[in-house]
Design a protein that fits this description.
469 residues, alpha/beta, 15-stranded mixed beta sheet, 15 helices, 15 strands, 41% helix, 21% strand
Length: 469
């Protein structure tokens, strides 16, 4: 037995021992607490190399009726309750030589009220062992309190993950984004940054440029998620400027960019700028690009972005969403297929084309020809829902290549609900092809979604048994 295997076994055994110890500490805490609390705390081992410590995840026991999980705002009393939990647990962790090094507030979002953020910042900076902190903010249509920048700066040495959900009005956006950039500029150890502007109607071209520049000095950043809905103040220049500034960030391993309902924005030039920025991420392993309902995207623009991202050598997971892009045609499927041919390292592929009305069977014939050569695929999702020009012939061509994907474990195909009764035969054919290959690979989770009149087909016992093999 090699030394590496022995060390791995010892590490796993030690992790289990620490886990049991943390369970005892947690049990002792829960038995002796006197307050009725709304929050659960989960203690987990946190081991980096030979450094043994603990991680605390604080989450809500139940969401209130008027709250959504992603924006469950903490009140002042809630913050006090969370801090009280950590204060009671931390001495016990220190006593067992398992200092608290990681703290995450899960399903808990702070409003930008000066008092609550200041209270939290003071507490976080008072735990010398803490080197990783996850924080979520909800920022709705109000000016950023001056104390916010100070508090974020105070927490910066420990802050590793930051989630910001904002909804800014036009008259506040420029100044608030500038202040946010100053605050994040101090977070030099930030590893994950998630900016959700889906409810923000006031973002301008200038704001986009500042948001792109925001990550330039974050040398530890590995994950960046940015979501934005269409704004009347953004045009193709804004996208170009975002790409130009974002090009200076080069060390990401996961990138997610979502642009919803943008019109007259994604021209050839803006796609070149965006694609160039993505290509600079030479260590990128996972990429999500969501252009849902960007109805002005044409085949040429799609080709530009697709061809550029396929030059990333380490890319393993690719998720592209062109749903609602009614102007793209079978040519886009051809471009994707050709790009896949040049990058055979991708193991997870997710393609969404719902409501792309110009797709035909010919596009699926072309795509299937290239998919057959993607032998490293482990997960495959294809969404052609409401592509009404696609028939059983197109779907059958996709099914016919499944047997050649030896490593495939998960397959999801979504299609429209106006197929003929021959859909039953198609399902049977697909199952037979999967069975033929099942001896050479792991079992497959297959989901073929049809709706309305054909949903009864999948409810039949014999079909369900067949699908669950």
């Amino acid at each position: 037995m090699s030394i590496e295997i022995i060390d791995a076994k010892r590490a796993a055994q030690r992790k289990r021992q620490i886990g049991q110890l943390l369970k005892q500490i947690h049990k002792s805490y829960t038995e002796n607490r006197s307050l009725k609390e709304e929050f659960n705390v989960i203690l987990e081992p946190y081991i980096r190399q030979n450094d043994e410590a603990s991680c605390a995840v604080v989450e809500r026991r139940e969401l209130r009726e008027d709250e959504d999980e992603c924006i469950a705002k903490l009140k002042k009393d809630d913050v006090a309750a969370i801090l009280d939990i950590i204060k009671k647990l931390n001495p016990q962790l220190e006593e067992q030589n398992l200092p608290l090094k990681k703290l995450s507030l899960k399903s808990c979002t702070l409003p930008l009220s000066g008092e609550s953020i200041e209270q939290l910042a003071q507490f976080i900076s008072s735990i010398p062992s803490l080197d990783s902190f996850t924080l979520r903010f909800i920022w709705c249509g109000v000016k950023m309190p001056p104390r916010f920048i100070f508090c974020i700066t105070k927490m910066a040495p420990q802050l590793r993950e930051l989630y910001l959900h904002f909804a800014l009005k036009p008259d506040l956006a420029e100044q608030c984004i500038s202040n946010l950039a100053k605050a994040i500029d101090s977070c030099r150890f930030l590893e994950s940054l998630n900016i959700d502007g889906m409810e923000c109607e006031g973002i301008t071209n200038n704001c986009l440029s500042k948001l792109g520049k925001m990550t330039n000095k974050l040398e530890s950043l590995r994950t960046f998620v940015f979501k934005l809905r269409s704004s009347q103040y953004i045009d193709e220049k804004g996208i170009q400027d975002f790409g130009t500034e974002f090009t200076k960030t080069k060390q990401l391993t996961h990138l997610e960019l979502s642009f919803y309902y943008f019109i007259n924005t994604f021209s050839k030039q803006s796609m070149i700028s965006l694609g160039k920025a993505i290509c600079q991420q030479t260590e990128l392993q996972s990429l999500v690009l969501d252009f849902s309902w960007c109805s002005d995207i044409v085949d040429e623009a799609a080709q530009i972005i697709i061809s550029q991202i396929m030059d990333i050598n380490d890319l393993r997971s690719l998720n592209i969403n062109f749903s609602g892009s009614t102007r793209i045609t079978d040519l886009t499927l051809q471009y994707i297929g050709q790009a896949l041919k040049s990058n055979d390292q991708i193991s997870k592929l997710f393609l969404y084309f719902g409501n792309c009305e110009s797709f035909t069977d010919q596009g699926l014939f072309t795509l299937s020809k290239y998919l057959a050569k993607c032998t490293n695929l482990q997960e495959l999702t294809l969404d052609f829902s409401s592509c009404f020009s696609i028939t059983e012939s197109g779907l059958e061509s996709i099914c016919s290549v499944i047997h050649s994907l030896y490593l495939l474990e998960d397959l999801f195909i979504s299609t429209h609900d106006f197929l003929s009764n021959e859909i039953q035969d198609l399902i049977n054919q697909m199952q037979e092809k999967l069975r033929e290959s099942a001896l050479r690979r792991k079992s497959i989770n297959l989901s073929l979604f049809v709706t309305n009149q054909y949903s009864t087909l999948l409810k039949r016992k014999d079909v369900l048994n067949d699908l669950a093999y």
